[in-house]
Amino acid sequence: MRQPVLPALGQLEQQALEYLWDRGEGDVAGLHLAVGKKRGITLNTVGSALERLHRKGLVSRRKVSHAYRYSACLSREELAARRVLEAAGGVKALANRGVLTAFIDLVADVDASVLSRLEALIAEKRGGR
Questions:
Q1: What is the model's pLDDT at position 76?
Q2: Which residues make beta-bridge pairs with 69?
């Protein structure tokens, strides 16, 4: 299944995701207190950032009383991995250009125990099919 290209994120959007990852979920008021006030931005600006993240498909929301509660749709690690994959040109490019092989070589040189973890993850994924 092909993942859609990740949209670019502004600084406030990135901070909003960090806030949600740290807390599991949050609302506009909480994010404003944690991030917005320090930056001197309004509650509406914080709300707009969360709305943009929702439209970009990076956060989900549910209505609680008169306000929305937001949650990140992907983890920090998933976002980082997808950014790396996109930068490399996608999965096929990783294999075709030897980037995947070079990555494995680098990992093996730094920490061979990570190779065992990679093998276990691959076996787990193959078993889940």
A1: 96
A2: 62
- Joined together, the tokens standing for residue 70 give 């937001």
Q: What is the CA radius of gyration of the chain?
A: 19
The residue type found at 83 is: R
Contact 85, 91 (CB under 8 A): yes
Question: Do 71 and 79 contact (CB within 8 A), yes or no?
Answer: no
Confidence (pLDDT) at 25: 96
Contact 32, 43 (CB under 8 A): yes
Nearest to 42 by CA among 52, 32, 51: 32
At 20-75, the pLDDT tens digits run: 999 999 999 999 999 999 999 999 999 999 999 999 999 999 999 999 999 999 99
Number of residues that this document lists for the chain: 129
Residue 89 phi/psi, 5° resolution?
95, 10
Task: Pick the closest to residue 53 from 17, 89, 19, 26 (CA basis).
Answer: 17
Q: Can you tell me the distance from the alpha carbon of 4 to that of 41, in angstroms, rounded to the nearest whole number?
A: 31
Residue with tokens 């250009």: 97
The pair of structure tokens assigned to 17 is 């995701």
